[in-house]
Design brief:
Blueprint: H1 2-26, H2 47-53, H3 57-60, E1 65-69, H4 75-88, E2 93-97, H5 98-110, H6 114-122, E3 126-132, H7 146-157, E4 162-167, H8 174-178, H9 181-194, E5 196-200, H10 205-217
Parallel strand pairs: 1-4, 1-5, 2-3, 3-4
Helix pairs in contact: 1-4, 5-6, 7-9
Bound molecules: adenosine-5'-triphosphate and magnesium ion.
Adenosine-5'-triphosphate is lined by residues 32, 37-38, 41-42, 69, 71-77, 131, 134, 166, 168, 205-206.
């Protein structure tokens, strides 16, 4: 009985260690959870739909996910929470912001490590490319466009493993942002063909937190966010 308990504890410890290793390898910057998400704050968001994503069946089906929506609506929170759940389910996960992923691959062109780097991004069960549209995609004269680099990666993954994107720009604006409309179109053609789409149309949690703080101080902040460019098309 005692042995059983000890063995149980040891197995549990090993499992915990494996999950921790998965999380570290994933590059997820923080542990966001669906349990900590305030659903009431985002009433247009279908909780049941997101919880279904939380089962990670889409990863097993090798489907892609595209989450669009305005600033601060919880896109990154949800995608990071899905990433954490995938680690808990012992899946291989990698997370990067769009700009960092492209920069990593371009660094590989400079030091001839591109094939290894491409492989590392190509093989995980779930690749999360967060915040497409945020930050400037840097491109040197001798580098391909971000669209070209991402296309190479997505073309390898599509149908073999799941990729999840978040973006606060219209999908139609990806071409301009990634530097090549044709290749961005080719990415979207692959991704949107079977992708699960979620558009979060609602208020910004960051603005909400700022307003609450201001209220406490007795001041009121104006809503000075620029107009969000959200693609609500299916
Ligand atoms: N409904 C919510 N409940 C609890 N926390 C939330 C909620 N929505 C957002 N947050 C928190 O607000 C912060 C901003 O959210 P997040 O980064 O997910 O926004 P985003 O939609 O990705 O915005 P951006 O377009 O600027 O990338 C995060 O700390 C996140 O955890
Ligand atoms: Mg985000």
């Amino acid at each position: 009985m005692l042995l059983e308990r000890v063995l149980g504890a040891e197995a549990a410890y090993k499992l915990e260690r494996r999950i921790e290793w998965r999380f570290k390898k994933s590059g997820l910057p923080e542990r966001k959870t669906l349990e900590a998400f305030e659903w009431a704050f985002q009433p247009n968001l279908d909780k049941a739909f997101v919880m279904e994503l939380g089962t990670l069946d889409f990863v097993r089906r090798k489907e892609d996910v595209v989450i669009t929506g305005a600033w601060g609506t919880g896109k990154s929170h949800i995608i990071k929470a899905l990433g954490l759940r995938a680690c808990l389910q012992q899946m291989a996960v990698r997370y990067a912001r769009g700009v960092d992923l492209v920069a990593d691959l371009h660094a590989g062109l400079a030091d001839a490590t591109y094939p290894q780097r491409l492989r590392r991004w190509a093989v995980p069960d779930l690749l999360i490319i967060d915040d497409i549209g945020l930050g400037q995609v840097k491109q040197r004269e001798d580098e391909p466009t971000a669209a070209h680099t991402l296309f190479n990666l997505i073309d390898r993954r599509h149908g073999h493993a799941s990729t999840a994107f978040t973006s606060n720009i219209k999908l139609s604006a990806w071409g301009r942002y990634l530097g090549d409309a044709t290749l961005a179109g080719a990415i979207l053609d692959r991704v949107t063909m079977h992708a699960i789409r979620l558009d979060i149309n609602g208020p910004s949690w960051r603005q909400h937190v700022a307003n609450e703080r201001a209220k406490k101080r007795g001041a009121k902040l104006p809503d000075d966010r620029p107009d969000p460019e959200v693609d609500a098309q299916p």
